[in-house]
Amino acid sequence: MTTSVRRRRCRGAPRRRRPWAGAASAGAVLLPAFPVLVALAGPLLPLSAAPGGAPSAPPGPGHLLGTDVLGRDVLALVSRGGLSVLGMTAATLVLAYAAGVPSGLLAAHGRRWMDETVMRGLDLLLAFPSLLLLMTLAATGHRGAGTLVAAAALVQVPAVARLVRATALAPGCRTAVEALRLQGVPEWRVQCGYVARSVRGPLVTDAGSRFGLVLYLLASANFLGLGLPADSPDWAVVIERNTDALFLQPAAVLIPAGLLMVLCVGANLTADRFLARHEGRSR
Questions:
Q1: Does the keyword Membrane apply (predicted)?
Q2: Residue 1 burial (CB < 10 Å; 0-12/13-18/19+)?
Q3: pLDDT digit string, tens, across residues 151-202
Q4: Which range marks the domain in which residue 183 is found?
Q5: DSSP 3-state assignment of 73?
Q6: What is the CATH number of the domain that holds 156?
């Protein structure tokens, strides 16, 4: 048998499906789906998060998961606290990419003075610690969900812009952009068409990891009391309020912490699976 025949047979042979591929695909769907379902469907349940029981009571007939330090039902807090987590994290990512992607494209394919102006300005913002910015805003009286989302999105813009700029300046992408310009293709079609498709894969991968970073930043801010009020059912706020009673009522801390962890891991798995499928279709 010749080498060319062997190659044709190898190319035509079906690929074996790895035994862990199905489990990874299922995990990429089920892990983020569970906390998202809890966050979206929880507020529809007829549960009251108002104080009405003994503080840090163990699970019982009236409270299936017990109560927290304020006497609130833990099940009600868990079911109602995820919506703020998802909403604030999604809003932060949308704002960060809405500002970071155009900035990166402008720096990559604009004039040199424009590149220097955009990137040096973003470098100053990148050198400023995220939590320090949030603490400064809170100390000056700027609190609340809107301020927290805007500040968290602002500190993510430099990293997003740097990623887009590096991808758009890759040798293959840069050569294709110059060829399209020589053919007379309008600039908006070059940027919104070819360059946008080139940066889509890295952006999806970055979104999975950045989701965890933003979730950690927002949770840390709420944990430190820099964002939502202390009586909010937000998962991070509930963890902060019940840390001292961890051994008396562990469910009030471990359940929301577990949901945050599952949401973060599931988002990374989903991004990885999406990127793998995108690369498979490209090949």
A1: yes
A2: exposed
A3: 889 989 988 988 888 887 775 566 776 777 677 766 666 666 667 777 777 8
A4: 30-40+67-282
A5: strand
A6: 1.10.3720.10
